[in-house]
Amino acid sequence: MIELTDEAIQQLLYKQSKEGWRNIRLGITGGGCAGFEYIFDSVDHDGDSNDVYIDYGKFGVVIDKVSVPYLVGMTLDYVKEGLNEVFKFINPKEASSCGCGVSINFDLDKVDEDKIFAVDLS
């Protein structure tokens, strides 16, 4: 569903050991000049009935069901860009992004809202 690069996993495990959280929450929310922004937060729960939980062993990823069709098939990477180190969403469903690097828009022809029904929610 969502691929994590080795670099992302290593950094997530490092942050988890320093900060003590259990899982991360990924998603999208309305906002920014391009229409959407990614959500990336640490959480201490496995989600609720409105979420999908993906177990990655030592941590999990919690995604709200509304965001799933937008995130299926993406990769979370951790990259060093000059002096900055950031988690980077590599999403083939993105149509454009703002110059600020935070706000994104989606190619709705690539967003299959039926994908949520193919995810095992148990």
Q: List the uncertain runs.
A: 116-122
Indicate the mean pLDDT: 86
The structure class reads mainly beta
Distance between the termini: 15 Å
Reading the helices and strands in chain order gives EHEEEEHEEEE
| Helix fraction bin | 10-25%
Q: Tell me the strand order in the biggest sheet.
A: 4-5-2-3-9-8
Count every helix, treating DSSP H or I runs of 4 or more residues as helices.
Answer: 2
Q: How large is the share of residues in beta strands? A: 35-45%
Count of discrete structural domains: 1
Strand and helix map with partners:
Layout: E1 3-4, H1 6-19, E2 23-31, E3 35-43, E4 51-55, E5 60-64, H2 68-71, E6 75-81, E7 84-90, E8 94-97, E9 103-106
Parallel strand pairs: 1-6, 2-5
Antiparallel strand pairs: 2-3, 3-9, 4-5, 6-7, 8-9
Describe the structure.
- The chain is mainly beta and 122 residues long.
- It has a single domain, classed as HesB-like domain (Hypothetical Protein Aq_1857, Chain: A, Sandwich), CATH 2.60.300.
- It is built from 2 helices and 9 strands, in the order E-H-E-E-E-E-H-E-E-E-E.
List keywords for this structure.
single chain, 122 residues, mainly beta, Hypothetical Protein Aq_1857, Chain: A, six-stranded mixed beta sheet, three-stranded mixed beta sheet, disordered C terminus
What's the gist of this structure?
Helix content is 15%, strand content 43%. The protein is built from 2 helices and 9 strands; from the N terminus they run E-H-E-E-E-E-H-E-E-E-E.
